[in-house]
Prior knowledge:
Elements: E1 4-16, E2 22-28, E3 32-38, H1 48-51, E4 56-65, E5 68-79, H2 80-83, H3 88-104, H4 113-126, H5 131-148, H6 168-176, H7 178-192
Parallel strand pairs: 3-5
Antiparallel strand pairs: 1-2, 1-4, 2-3, 4-5
Helix pairs in contact: 3-5, 4-5, 5-6, 5-7
Amino acid sequence: MHHLYHTEAFVIGAFPKNETAMSFLLLTKEYGLIYASAQGIRSSASKLKYVLQLYSLAQVTIVHGKAGWKITTALPLANIYYLFVSKPYLQTLFARVFLLTKRLVLGEEASKLFAICRAAVTFCESREVTLEDSRSLEVLLVVRILHELGYVGDLPKDISLNNEDWSSEHLSKVSEHHMTLVEVINQAIAESQL
């Protein structure tokens, strides 16, 4: 008997595996970035296919077997597309951030990446985020992800890397240092060689 693991996860990738199965790239709370497969998800009777949509947030139950992780159940928590249907710029922001995460994270790493992304989604849900704010939010989110992965060193002193600090005031500080932070991001991505 295999042990069942319960965790929250963002679905940041989905790939057909065979006629009825799919593999998913999950950014999980406890286990980092993992590939997990789901059997029968492509059949018309599958209940999981509506929960495991790209860029959705779900409570998943996974099991680790000989062939890797398998998804046994999933409950929907949110979907970036539906949360921000009236704000396509936020949909695009999170899609770009998840693509960057896929590019930079190479395997199972238990880290704070999930918490960083979850806090950003929660911030956007709880406040009116304008297009201008979203630019600063994206820069801050990417800087925090790169810092967590060890790619970013020194930053301006008034830029907080504390994941609890998501506020309009902090976004204003990020906006003031926008060009400097974009240079830091570009340099970090270039130095990653990924």
